[in-house]
Amino acid sequence: MDERRLVRISKYLAKHLRHQPERIGLELDEHGWVAVDVLLAAAASHRFPISRAELVQVVDANDKQRYAIEGDRIRASQGHSVAVDLDLPVTEPPALLFHGTISRNLAGIRTEGLRPMNRHHVHLSVDRETAKHVGARRGRPVVLTVDAAGMHASGHEFRVSANGVWLVDHVLPEFIRYPD
């Protein structure tokens, strides 16, 4: 399958497994899962046919492991704007985590911290390079360092998705370090 087709399928999955399942008649269960056959039938009936082989290739080849297949079910690993409980256990984070953004967001972050915006959680990375890559999607990236150990000690709960993205409800300004 060519790269453009992989990207189109991945974006289609993101839209319908994270944000608008109802648009193609999907009903995610409480943890975000839907049967693969139901997804494939819904996509086909909305003029975007995906073969099972293509679906598996997109899931397996996605560099960020955005999707997971377990048995006959599929879901997005994180990033939902629809109500789902990913059923991830509370986990002690590493001492530091990182968040990529752009400079025009810094004034709001300094005041309010990192908020989930239209998602359920703030997404954090274990390394600067990943955070830089995430921030670069919207412009010249700025990488913020989050004192995850301090947050955890203060009672904030962290979870980690299957693809290694750390999730937290909110990062208060006092736990954020800015680059020089």
Description:
The chain is an alpha+beta fold. The protein folds into 2 domains: 3-76, Arc Repressor Mutant, subunit A (Orthogonal Bundle), CATH 1.10.10.970; 96-177, ADP-ribosylation fold (Alpha-Beta Barrel). 32% of the residues lie in helices and 19% in strands. The chain contains 6 helices and 9 strands. The chain has helices at residues 3-19, 36-45, 52-61, 106-112, 128-135, 148-153; strands at 34-35, 67-70, 73-76, 96-102, 122-124, 141-147, 159-160, 166-168, 176-177. The strands form 3 sheets. The protein has a 3-stranded antiparallel sheet with strand order 1-3-2. Strand 7 and strand 8 form a beta hairpin. Helix 1 (3-19) packs across helix 3 (52-61). It is globular. The mean pLDDT is 93.
What's the helix and strand layout?
Layout: H1 3-19, E1 34-35, H2 36-45, H3 52-61, E2 67-70, E3 73-76, E4 96-102, H4 106-112, E5 122-124, H5 128-135, E6 141-147, H6 148-153, E7 159-160, E8 166-168, E9 176-177
Antiparallel strand pairs: 1-3, 2-3, 4-6, 5-8, 6-9, 7-8
Helix pairs in contact: 1-3
Enzyme class: transferase
GO biological process, one term: tRNA splicing, via endonucleolytic cleavage and ligation
EC number: 2.7.1.-
